[in-house]
Amino acid sequence: MSFLRLMRRNAWRKPLRTILMMLSVAVAFLIYGLGQGFLAGSQGVGGANEDRLVVQSRNGRAQPLPVAHLARIAADPDVAGVAGSARIRGFVGSQTNVAVASAVEPGAMAAIMGDELALTPDLLDGLDGARDRVLVGRALMEAQGWRIGQRIALTPFQVARADGANWSFEIAGVFDGARPDVDTYFMLARYDYVNAARARDKDTVDGILVDPRPGVSPGALAAKIDAAFLSSAAPTRSQSEKAFLEALIRQIADFGLIVTLVTSAAFVTILMIAVNTMVFAIRERTFEIGVLKVLGFSGSRILGLVLGETLLVFLAGGAIGLALAKAASLLMGPEIGLALPPLLIGKTILVLVALGLLAGLLPAGIAMRIPTIRALRSR
Q: Which tens digits make up the pLDDT trace of 322-357?
């Protein structure tokens, strides 16, 4: 009998116990996968990067910036591209059905995020003609069940129209994220339409995206931009897109701490369950361990056998939990901000292997140190 087959037979000698242990591991790693997925999605691990800058008012997110700032920033030789955005947050139908429209200059936005959002020339051409046309992200389109050509009414929470009516848009096309973890749960509207119709804050933007030229340090460019507007009526705060998203999430709650506490509790619990179960299993098999030693199994092979058995259970259970978390991210990730990029999955597998080895260390050590004579006398 091969070493691997012996390890597998030992693991399944008590099927109910093994299945329950696998399910416990699966639940723990489902919690871990969902927690890390929410953290990754909220911090924009996939969609955000550390080179692109977000420029906002130093006086807070509620204070807009003059649209004239875009021209001054674009004139800097270290800047490759600039795009401003004015957000309209509101609801469609019921107040719980929230949607966001970002009013942008289509060409400028395509120059910066065209690849990430797959903003093809054909899609941009769809915004020509009627100024109230919008491009809708794939995630938002599927969640709402909208169709191209449909007209939707967005009731704003803050950015009201001058005539007091709801914002009305015609869907001209759908854009997709270049990767599954790129956020597409929003709309792109034309800035000229929104700016002309809104009741206040005309000729302003909520934020400015800035792409540095190749070789230019994003940190140095951020400091340079802030210094240029330091004494103006609208001073700025510039930071990387990733840092901006992380700071935005921290204003709501410290999700990192919450996820760490929840997953740590789950892992401590599963380790206690696994160690106790495996120690009990080793005591049941004391005589068999003695026989293996008589047959020539060294202490290191006994150690490897028990560690492998524990690792096998953890890998099977962890794979189930991780698969469920991945399925959740694919089915409803964009709507709830859940993302499991390949790097995160790889990190989870490493954690899974480490916990499996840690859980099997104590019972494996006990099995390795059992004296052969005492083991044979146990029956």
A: 999 988 887 876 666 677 878 888 989 999 999 999
Structural domains of the chain, count: 2
C-alpha 139/C-alpha 141 separation (Å) is 5
Residues 84, 162: Cα–Cα separation, whole Å:
21
The whole-angstrom separation of Cα 341 and Cα 78 is 32
Strands (E), 114-230: 133-137, 151-156, 167-175, 187-190, 204-205, 207-212
- What pLDDT does residue 35 have? 84
| 368 and 297 part of one domain | yes
- Kindly state whether residue 154 falls inside one of the protein's structural domains: yes
Place of tokens 């597409």: 184
Question: Does the pTM exceed 0.70?
Answer: no
- Among 142, 140, 176, 184, smallest CA distance to 41 is for 184
Average pLDDT over residues 165-172: 95
User: How do beta strands 167-175 and 133-137 pair?
Assistant: parallel
Write the CA distances from 60 to 104, 210, 263, 273, integer angstroms: 21, 19, 33, 48
Query: And the tokens for 320?
Result: 């189930």
CB 278 within 8 A of CB 365: no
Does residue 18 carry a pLDDT above 50?
yes
Contact 21, 277 (CB under 8 A): yes
Its domain, for residue 270, covers 3-44+254-377
Type of residue found at 199: A
Which phi and psi (to 5°) does residue 209 adopt? -90, 135
Q: Mean pLDDT for the chain?
A: 87
Residue 288 contacts by C-beta under 8 Å, 6 or more apart in sequence?
none
Q: Are 316 and 360 within one domain?
A: yes
